[in-house]
Every structure is written in structure tokens, then in C-alpha cells.
Amino acid sequence: MSFETRAMVCAHHHLYSSLARGMQAPAVTPHSFLSILENVWWKLDVALDLDTLYWSAALGAAEALCNGTTAIIDHHESPLAIDGSLDVIADACSMIGVKTNLSYGITDRWDGTTLHSKVSPLSPMTDGAARGLRENERFLQSGGRGMVGVHASFTCSDETLDRASSLAESMNTGVHIHVAEGIDDKEAGARLQSRAKDNWLLVHAVHLDRQLAGTIVHNPRSNMNNAVGYANPLRFSNDVALGTDGIGADMLEEARLAYVRLREFDVMQSPDTVWEWLQTGEKFFPEIVNDTVTWSYDKVDSPWHVAFTPGIRCVDVHVDGQLVVKNGSPTQFDMTEIRTKASEAAAKLHKKLALT
Ligand SMILES: [Zn+2]
Question: Which CATH class is domain 4-354?
Fold first, then answer.
């Protein structure tokens, strides 16, 4: 029995959404998953500029670190501030001291002026998608650790999916893509079957109708919040990792939630299943073996204990031997300053959103 574990990985995050908390409710109450995208997230992402993004990423990374998460796989979109956006996230996370795997989620839903919620597979690749692809390529070629991001099949043409897939292959990495998160993307399995590879990250897979190559990332809290249904990741033989889809990066909390959601579906399951999911993300950050977390509970290495002990706090974090969180507070940056700057950026962002 131990107070200590390895540090955590969040296998799917959206650091650009850290400032969304507290924003004004949309004028129209969303009635479906697609409506949530249209009225909330696709308004937020076009309101982002690079300065806002920096503080959003810094806040998300700081909160991750203070929850014992030292590595984040992020999926980013800011359609009106694409160029250089991955460097901005990388810089913010590096200032905080969190490891990252970054990608820009390309999409054809923006043709420059108009939003198209669903895109025909036969349409040509848009300029917006081409710019997103260039951002992925630029970042990867400059030595950044990442993947090629794609928003989702239903907002991309076949040409765009093929270009993303080819770029990933040429850069020796995978594609990080939302897959059948809602019913609106139920064709994802058919669209991706011939394209997906073992090094792809298949995020959500709630309505996925067939086995695809890749690692599935399960995001139970987000799926419940968007009422898209239970993903039941065990119906596939893929490796399964855990993500938060942008709702913080408290992975012990996400694992506890994943466990009760799993049990609600199958009462024969044990917490060990979910703890395996928690560790799958480590394959993207081999160096995380050198990061440790000390928690406020003395049996934190036992899944059966953790599953039934809400409120376990992260006390200390060591990254590669260096103490970066001590008694819950970061040692390498000023959390008050990060929160102050993030609040200022959030006020600017919320004001902009109120005008849309
Ligand atoms: Zn997501």
C-alpha cells in the first residue's frame, strides 16, 4: 500500500476550452449534440486569438499539473488564428512544465465565411482545412511532438481525410480524430475503415459500428454531459485510454467516473479495467516513468480503494526527479498570476462571445 503512483496522462484534451467556464449561456438552448457544437464550441473556437489561447492553455496545463497529470494529448482548433497556434500551446505548457502531444484539428466546416455543420465527402478541401494541415506539418517538421489532427469525418471531405492521413504517414505519426462521438457522425466507421492505422487516436467511438485500427480514447464525463450515450469501449479489442475532452485533467476523478459508468452498464466489471485504461496513455509519453505523484490517501495504488474513495488530493508531484508541486502548490510558477491572467483573457473572450 502506498501514497505514491506514477503521474497521469490525459489522452484527449482541448486546452483551448479552459476559459469557457462561466461564459454566457447560448441564446438558443442546444437540443442535441450537433446543436451544442453549433451554439457553444464552434462559436468559442472562432472567438480565440493567440493571446487568449496562451492563457487558456497555461491555465489548463497548470490545473492538470496540480492534479498529478504531467502529460497531455491535446486537440486544438481556432479557425481564425490557425498559424502558429500549436507553438503557442507548446510554449504555454512548457512554461508550466507539462509534456504535450499536440495536433490542430482540421475541418472543412469553415469555408472562410460560412459554417457548414455537415460536409459532403465529395466536396473539395477548403482553404481552412489546408491551413490547418499546414499548421500540423509546420509544427511536426519543426520538431514538435504531435499528431495530425482532424476534427471529425462528418465535417471533412474525403480529400481532406486523405491528405491528413498521408501527412501523418509521411511524418511517422498518427491521426488524432473524433470518431462517431454523436449520431451525426455515424458514418465515421465506413469513412475511416480503409484509412485508420494502429497509431491513430480514435476519440469517443460512441456510435462506432465496426472495429478500426487505433487506440480508442474514452471520455465518460464529456459523453454524459453531451448526452451522446455510453461508448462501451470494451466491445472492441482496441487499447483504450482515458481523456477528459476539455473538462479539466483530473484523471483520478475521470477514472472513478469511468468506473461507475462501466458498472452501470456491466455490474460484473472491476476497477482494474479502468485502471488499465488510465495507464494506456503512457505509451505516448515513455518518459513519464520518471514522474511520480504523492496523494492524500495511503492506498492509492489499489484500484478497489481508489474507486470508492472520492476526494483523493494530489499533494506532491515530481517530474524527472524535480519537485514541481509541493503540498498542492506549484513550485515553478505562480498559480495566482496564471489565474489572474487567465481571468483577464476570459473576460475579453466572453465579451467577444456576447457579441456573436
Ligand atoms: Zn474532443
Answer: alpha beta
Q: What are the percentages of helix, strand and coil residues in the chain, rounded to 5?
A: 45, 20, 40
Length of the chain: 356
Per residue in 31-65, pLDDT (tens digit) is 999 999 998 999 999 999 999 999 999 999 999 99
Q: Can you list the positions of beta strands (E) in 139-220?
A: 148-152, 175-179, 201-204, 215-218
Give CA–CA dist 253/165, Å, rounded.
Answer: 33
Would you say the pTM of this structure is higher than 0.85? yes
Domain boundaries, the chain: 4-354
Residue 323 Cα, ligand 1 centroid: separation in angstroms? 31
Of residues 172, 169, 168, 149, the one with CA closest to residue 73: 149
Q: How far is the CA of 111 from the centre of ligand 1 (A)?
A: 21
345 Cα: distance to centroid of ligand 1 (angstroms): 22
